[in-house]
Amino acid sequence: MSLQSLSVREAVVGRRSIKKFNGQPVEREDIMQIIEYAVWAPNHQNREPWRMVVACGEELKELHQLLRNTVIPKWQDLTQEDLDKKMQKFTTPGAYIFVIVPEDVRQNIRLEDFAAASSMIQNLQLLAWDLGIGSCWKTPDFLDAPVFRKSIGAKPGERIIAMLQLGYFDELPKGKERKKPDELVTFFSLNGEE
Ligand SMILES: Cc1cc2nc3c(=O)[nH]c(=O)nc-3n(C[C@H](O)[C@H](O)[C@H](O)COP(=O)(O)O)c2cc1C
After folding, report:
1. What is the tens place of the pLDDT at every residue in 79-117?
2. 17 lines ligand 1 (CB under 6 A)
3. What predicted TM-score, i.e. pTM, was given to this entire model?
4. Which of 3, 66, 117, 191 supports an S-S bond with 101, CB 3.0-4.6 Å?
C-alpha cells in the first residue's frame, strides 16, 4: 500500500468509476493485497460469502479470447477492425476480478450475502483507488450465460455478481452530483408524521 494513504472520506468521495483505461498492466501483488484488506467488510455470521476469480498478466489473453469468441454473439458479424475497436473496453483494463457469491435458497440469507459481498466490492474499489488504480463494477448480461459461467468455474448455486475491471487511467471522469441529505432524510417521528 502507498505510504500516504487517502483519508476514508477522500477515497469515498473522490473515487470514480473508470471506464477508459490506458492499458498499463496491474501488478498481481497489488490485486492480492487489495483483496487481503477488502475482505474485512462486514458480513453476517462471518460467512465471508464470496470468492473471486482474478485475471491479470498472461491470463488476460485467454479472458479476452473467451469474451471475443463466446459471449458477444451479437458482434460476430463485425469486421475484424470493428471488433477490435469494440473489444477495447475489454482489452484495456489491466486486471479483472470476478466476484462470486453463494445463492442461498433462503431469501434473507441470500440478501445478506449479496449485501456483504457488495460492501466487500466497494472496499476493493476504494483500496484500488488508494493505489491510483481505477475500477468499474460491471454487470453485463453474459455473467449469467451458461458458457461464461462454465469458463469462469461458477458452480450451481453460485452467482457472479460483479465483473470488476481495474486499471490505470489518464482522465478522471467528473462524478454526477449526488442528492443532498436534506432531500434524502426525514427525521423519525412516530407513525411517520412530519
Ligand atoms: C451494481 C452495479 C452495477 C454496475 N454495472 C455497470 C455496468 O454494467 N456498466 C457500467 O458502465 N457501469 C456500471 N456500474 C457503474 C456505475 O455506472 C457507476 O457507479 C455510476 O455511474 C456512478 O459513478 P461513480 O461510480 O463514478 O460514482 C455499476 C455499478 C454498480 C454499483
Report:
1. 888 888 888 999 999 999 999 999 999 999 999 999 999
2. yes
3. 0.95
4. 117
